Amino acid sequence: MKVNGIPTRTIRALDDGTAVEIIDQTLLPYRFEKRVLSDWRDCVEAIDVMRVRGAPLIGITGAWAVVLATKENPENAALIKAAEQIQNVRPTAVNLSWAVQRMLAALLPRDPSLRFPAAVKLAEAMTQEDVMLSRAIGDAGYGLIAELYRKLRRPVNILTHCNAGWLATVDYGTALAPIYFAFERGTPVHVWVDETRPRNQGLLTAWELGQQGVPHTIIADNAGGELMQKGAVDMVIVGADRITRRGDVANKIGTYLKALAAKDNEIPFYVAAPSSTIDWKLNDGKREIPIENRSASEVLSLRGIDRSGEVATVQLASPNESAANPAFDVTHNRFITGIITERGVFFAHQPCCSLPGSDCKCRTLRNLR
């Protein structure tokens, strides 16, 4: 996508893979700055403090972290130890462990002296693959928006939660990719952008939509239900950090409440994610998906621009207050209309597939595997 009219990606290799360059998303939307990571520990720190964020981009950054670990020490013990630290830095997004394990599976059978160039080659391939997956998700989801437009004959109002645009991937995004495709192809859209407390990732969504010229409006997290009740929302599209094999979805905290409101108002609720976000080992999302708990400071303080134009953090609550900060929640498959993947739109759940002995061939996730 473009920043100030210049085609830009969230991550790219430098100096033949000996370093990577990222957009420091902790400074957005106030300042656009890039940051060079030359050590695998820099990648871990970037993932941890959310300089990079979004399940697909976390995964690709993890792959490049393995590259840099291989550069430092390609021997088995050192590489496996580094990989363990990399994949455990954020537990909810399955793309991180998926990417790290994919790298290890390709590297460990090789002679250590041959591992670094092989690591660079695979990480580059995974980076480009992520772009193609996002484009395929955009193409698949575009059909849903176009169908609504043909029915409504007015701009389609889409509500999002968190940021699942190109900033959360290498390029194009997941939940925003269908919106970008619709906009580029002349289908009128308007996006309701949840602010998404406590990290305010909705501000990143608004920033990137603004860079592409897509009409949008920022709303408080709790405004979505009221907008649905008065008919101002035609569909909801969100991303995902992990999807179980039965179609339960872990996404940014607050997603579950949007799904409940959409169900109550008979508004289609879609999840957009690459198939690498599906954790085939898990079934019951509420019981089995690990939920990351982040620092209370994210709830008790807020970043913004001060009067001098500098990025500053202000305290919102009394210094003696405590806070809980679960970063994600889980939405059961029964609240999800469909899951938009690179291979098309699949149902999270169909009653016919739950019948004993069913060999149903409908477009459910189990037939995606």
Task: Tell me which oligomeric state these chains represent.
Answer: single chain
Mean pLDDT across every amino acid position: 94
CATH architecture of the largest domain: 3-Layer(aba) Sandwich
List how many beta strands DSSP finds: 18
Poorly predicted tracts of residues: none
Helix amount: 25-40%
Largest sheet: 7 strands, mixed
CATH class label of the largest domain: Alpha Beta
User: Can you write the helix and strand succession as a string?
Assistant: EEEEEHHHHHEHEHEHEEEHEEHHEEEEE
What integer value in Å does the Rg equal? 20 Å
What is the H level of CATH, i.e. the homologous superfamily of the largest domain? Translation initiation factor eif-2b, domain 2
Strand content: 15-25%
Q: How many domain regions? A: 2
What is the approximate shape?
globular
Strand order of the largest sheet: 8-7-6-9-12-17-18
Task: Describe what this molecule looks like in 3D.
The chain is α/β, with parallel strands linked by helices. It has two domains: 2-129, Four Helix Bundle (Hemerythrin (Met), subunit A), CATH 1.20.120; 140-367, Rossmann fold. The protein has eleven helices and 18 strands. It has helices at 40-48, 55-72, 76-87, 94-107, 115-152, 177-184, 202-212, 224-229, 255-264, 285-288, 297-300; strands at 2-3, 6-7, 11-14, 19-23, 34-37, 156-160, 189-194, 216-219, 235-238, 242-244, 249-252, 269-272, 278-279, 301-305, 311-315, 328-331, 338-341, 344-346. It has a seven-stranded mixed β-sheet, with helices on both faces. Strands 13-10-11-16 form a four-stranded mixed β-sheet, with helices on one face. A three-stranded antiparallel β-sheet has the order 3-4-5. Helix 1 runs antiparallel to helix 2 (55-72), helix 3 (76-87) runs antiparallel to helix 4 and helix 4 (94-107) runs antiparallel to helix 5. The longest helix is centred in the middle third of the chain and has 38 residues, at 115-152. Pathway: Amino-acid biosynthesis; L-methionine biosynthesis via salvage pathway; L-methionine from S-methyl-5-thio-alpha-D-ribose 1-phosphate: step 1/6. Substrate binds at residues 53-55, 90, 201, 251-252. GO terms for molecular function: S-methyl-5-thioribose-1-phosphate isomerase activity. This is Methylthioribose-1-phosphate isomerase. Belongs to the EIF-2B alpha/beta/delta subunits family. MtnA subfamily.
